[in-house]
Amino acid sequence: MRAWPALALAAAAAIALLPAAARAEVWAYVDGQGMAHVAPLQVDSRYRRVLGDAPGGSGSEAVPGKTDRADGLLLWLEIAPEAKALAPLLRAAAEKHGVDEELLKAVITVESGFNAKAVSPRGAIGLMQITPVAADRYGTAAERRTPAETRLLDAQVNVNTGARMLADLIRRHGGIDIALAAWNAGEGTVRRHGGRLPDIAETRAHVQLVLELYWALLQERQARRATGLRLTTGR
């Protein structure tokens, strides 16, 4: 079992105490006694990065806030005020459009790190990194009265557009994995690969990371809902 609560609390405290320039990365580990050790750099091999991007990890397509490890992202979600602030919005969008809240949270975490103003080199905008073309396709008539480049910077519009789009992709492609591939690489790419997961390293890594984080968040939800434990010995 991972010691997420102890590490999350320690990391949150450490981030508050670190100088602003040092907050770009947080490294941590939990020792055998359950003590969390947190530092702004990798002191030794026991420390792992729990917040911040790996140097050169995403290349020219990086969006500020992205990381490449599901465990670090999961921990970051426990302490990030921007993620907590948007929880009611995600819950409402999930219920309205029939998409798991945890899936929305996983996509946003991987796409933008909950940076509502993020703009990628490819022109994808906001929390869910939606292109203006997709925004016009999935936006409501009222939303389309405002230019996509402007409205996608609004968290509520971005999340609802993204939830609407994700629900449609899942419905049409028959699975979350292929829907995520279409989200990342485009539906044309998925069609050219026979409706299967494209053999593109970036897309496969994206899909795997989102699914890993989604699964971890689902497990957390089930754990929160548990009210007791019953063991069966098989006798």
Q: Could you provide a short overview of the structure?
A:
The chain has 235 residues and is mainly α.
List the SSEs and their pairings.
Blueprint: H1 4-17, E1 26-30, E2 36-39, E3 48-51, H2 70-79, H3 81-85, H4 87-97, H5 101-112, H6 132-138, H7 148-151, H8 155-173, H9 176-185, H10 187-192, H11 201-225
Antiparallel strand pairs: 1-2, 1-3
How far from one another are the termini? 27 Å
Q: Name the CATH class of the largest domain.
A: Mainly Alpha
Strand content: 5-15%
Domain module count: 2
SS-based class: mainly alpha
- Average pLDDT over all residues: 78
Task: Note the total helix count.
Answer: 11
What's the architecture of the largest domain, going by CATH?
Answer: Orthogonal Bundle
**Fold-level CATH name of the largest domain:** Lysozyme
* Radius of gyration of CA atoms, rounded to a whole number: 19 Å
Which regions contain 5 or more consecutive residues with pLDDT less than 50?
1-24, 53-68, 229-235
Q: What's the main sheet like? A: 3 strands, antiparallel
* Order of helical and strand elements: HEEEHHHHHHHHHH
